[in-house]
Amino acid sequence: MAVVLDQTWDLDSIFAGGSDSAALTEHLDAVASDIEQLRPDIEETAVTAGTDAWTVILDRVQDISARLHEASAFCGCLVSQNVKDDKAKLLIGRTSQLGAALSAAYIALDAKLLQMPEDRWLSLLDNPGAQSIRFNLEERRTRAKDRLDPERETLIADLNVDGYHAWGRMYRTVVARMTLSHEDGGKIVPLSMGQAANKLLDPDRAVRAAVFKKWEEAWTDSAELCASALNHIAGYRLALYKHRNWNSVLREPVQYNRMTERTLEVMWDVIERHKAPFVAYLKRKANLFGIENLSWHDVAAPLVSGSSTYSYEQAADFITEQFGRFSPAMAAFAQKAIVNRWVEAQDRAGKETGGFCTSFPVSNQTRIFMTFSGTFGNVSTLAHELGHAYHQSVMRGLPVMAKGYAMNVAETASTMAERIVTDAAVRHAGDPGERLALLEDKVQQAATMFMNIHARFLFETRFYDRRRQGLVGTEELCDMMVQAQKDAFHDALGEYHPHFWASKQHFYGTGVPFYNFPYTFGYLFSNGIYARAVEEGPKFADRYVELLRDTGRMTVEDLATKHLDADLTRAEFWEIATMLAVEDANEFLRLTETV
Questions:
Q1: What is the pTM (predicted TM-score) of this model?
Q2: Which of 54, 108, 119, 280 has most Cβ atoms within 10 angstroms of its Cβ?
Q3: Residue of 422, 446, 449 whose CA lies nearest to 580
Q4: Domain 18-162 belongs to what topology?
Q5: Which of 514, 477, 573 is nearest to 227 (CA)?
């Protein structure tokens, strides 16, 4: 791409005018009106009504869902690009209210599905208008049996807006107000927490250490508010689970991710058995840094100060080129997304931390959010988010319900895209030092999946056990976090991140519970897919698309059986997937034996 690319996204093509958009207001008014009529229409439709009447209802539900998602995604983008956009925050509040009303309609729908006589139910499933969402309807009916009565579930949905979800919004408000002072070129400059997070990856260890010290201090100052939000989010879930007679805090997250607890247990067991090479890697990296043990801020830092930096244009060119070697369609999509300004990558103050990809189902578009500062890690992140976007694009044409894939398989497509790019970067590196640095980046990602994510999982499971006894204070949260990190990293670090429970926004998400293990699942699942792609060559690209299109309409166990002939409840698949990462770690150790 010879032209200079605009690193700010185009939102006006969705709704012109940002948080003052008249088109958005009109859109929300129409959605509100349709939702208001939907629930009584569902309740007035007899369970013995003809299947055609019910397919009309199902079409309406899906249409309204798509339109509300369009508006919600837009408002989320507004706040992410400018954390001080107060009008956008109010709009998010309105979409949340509408979401609660739509949830009430879904609860009414699920109750009707549950009440249908068996012959009528089977007739509905066989109706041509419902066959394409058969799995989703059966799933909804099964889950309805596992919940409270419709009246109480509706009340819960209504109270969620200003209760449960409000705690997540409060956390985002706290983070939006935070800044960190940093000396740059003799000047003191304020950094948003997103910018500060990038500074924690600075090649200069002195810079990282200084920023990390201030980072911990900043989160210490906000710890009380963060702890309040975390405690009440967990307290809400535990109270709800108690009333539903759910004994395990993992019941909701594994149900959401369409997997079994057995699959999750086997995955973690295999990982735990193969951590030794990654402990050795962390020790070797410390030696290369000239220190005894890595600190938390060293783990993801570049190996050498001279690591290459990349312009946004170079990143875009490299990603599309490597995507093209796997799938020309994937490359064409990535180029379209970048050129059409579907990506917000500008490094500026006032943005939220982290990165994401969100879909706009009515416009058939996506938007990617990140902060690009020129590191190879940023290149990987862009590839990762483009993988999400490609996944969403290949679902086009499916019913809305069948597009609803969970986070674990969402992370499959993104991690697959990232791996395509990182493997290519290692292969194409001409300089041995650069090749080693890129290989180390791959190993570091595996360590993140096997250790950092594991620490999050251990912390959350232990925190929920402790939370059953009452509120948990900031000091105890820090102690629990450090212990989880020590356990997950096998005591390989010299300094940990006590306030990670406060700084990691994933702990505060009220949309997806236990926002941690799906990353590791997706990483390893994509490893298995990648191995198959290497084995089969270009012909696998079409099969890959078919796998992605099935992610919203079957369990992950069935998905693996159908497309990979693999059993996820047994160790074999996970062993193969894990060994790909172990091979990278061993290669790194071999190359650095005499360094």
A1: 0.87
A2: 54
A3: 446
A4: Butyryl-CoA Dehydrogenase, subunit A; domain 3 (1.20.140)
A5: 477
